[in-house]
Prior knowledge:
alpha/beta; 6-stranded parallel beta sheet
Amino acid sequence: MRAAFASGTDADNPLAALTVGERPEPVHPADDWVTVEVRASSLNHHDLWSLRGVGLPADRLPMILGCDAAGIDPDGNEVVVYPVIADPGDPRGISILSERFPGTFAERVAVPRSNLLALPAGMSLTDAACLPTAWLTAWRMLRTVGRADEADAVLVQGAGGGVATAAVALAVAMGKRVYATSRDAAKRERVAELGATAVEPGARLPERVDVVVETVGAATFDHSLKSAAPMARIVVSGATAGHEPKVNLRRVFAMRLEILGTSMGTPEELRDLLAFCAERKIQPVVDSVVPFSRIDEAFAHLHTAQAFGKIVIDHQA
């Protein structure tokens, strides 16, 4: 079957480690696994990190990339694939598709049957393929870890990337006052179109916020601390611009702030996210839809950091 996979790793030029070609059909490690015909998938920065060799050692190569997918199960049902697999061999107790088990950038992918969720009525496979990683992470950051139900105002750092843009759209749909930062003026315009107040990085906000969605790291963390209201939650799921920020601990304890780390989410949270998007008629923010035959171009676009929202792969084109 045709697939996009890491044939090697290259920390400096990850695109050089990407190969598009033939790979063997999926295998089932256990009796409860099934094969899904992939109809749509979407890219994440996790895929570029894998090509750099982060979390993907040489003994697992070649590895089919991709975490997100929607497609058809063996019974002909339209399904969304939950990408987290129980993995006793991983220190976390789990792994994500494309780390230890082949990923979704292929004609078919094997997963435990319990990882399949029904596609909500009225939702396209293309939209659904955006949700299981970036949108699920944003949902958990806001709803579960950040307790956004108790919040009035939310700050999202670095809007434009998959998680941050999802957080903006979801927080707006939750009825929160949303502030979002971006260095790019064009991305700030796009953020404003989603219903947020767009500001430059480091800018003073009109109010302190109850929840901060932090995926940038060192470049924005001091601003996150200064923008937080008493007893606010600063929720961290990434560090694209540095993983060792300076932290003013006096501000942390004086303002009684919570700094919380998270990633991905549970199957139940993905089910809730799908229902929320279907009920509110929320469409994921899509940068572009690219046919599988041009998936190398999609990777190149993601690598430029110019994408706004998700890059979706159409496996039927």
